[in-house]
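Much of what follows relies on a compact textual record of a protein's fold. A complete example follows; check for yourself that the lines match position by position.
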Amino acid sequence: MIFNSIKLSAARKKVAQLVEQQSSKSFPGKPVSLGIIIDSKHEEELTVLLKLKKLLKIADKNFKVFYYNPNKTKPSDLDCCTFNLQDFDSKGGLINKELEEISSQGVDLLITFAAENNTTAHLITAYFDAGLKVGRFQQNLALYDLILQTEEDAELFVEELLKYLKHLTKAHNE
C-alpha cells in the first residue's frame, strides 16, 4: 500500500514532466485514428463513446481502447489494451512494451474518459503522442488540448466533441 502511494506520487511528477516536454503533433482536421482511455468506473459510458468510431468513420486498424482497471481484468466482450499502475516503474516510467509502442505511434484524436483523480489514466494520456487530446476536467488543463466539462454524461461529451471537431475540420480546410 505504501509502495503504491509512493508510485502514485512519482506518477504525478512524471505527468507534469511529460506535459512540459510534449511536442504537439499536428491535428489533421478530420481524425483518421482514434484512441479512447477509459477506467472501470466509467465502463457503462463506453458504449456511447464507441459510437464515435462509426460517426468519425475510423477503420478498425486505426482504433484502440485502453482500459484502466486496478486488477487488470477487462470486460469479456471488449477488445482493448488493459493497464494499471504496475505497467509503470517506481519513477513513472512506462514498462509495458505494448503500451509504449502504441503510445509512441500515436493517434490523431485521444479521448480520456476517466475519473478526475485517476493518476494512472492521466499518466498514459501524458505518454501518448496525439494530434488532439480531449479530457473532462479543468484540474488537468495542461494535459489536454480540449476540455469538455460534461460531468459523467457521455452522450453530452460525444455531442460536444462532434461540434468542436466540425469547427476544427472546417477551420483546417479553409
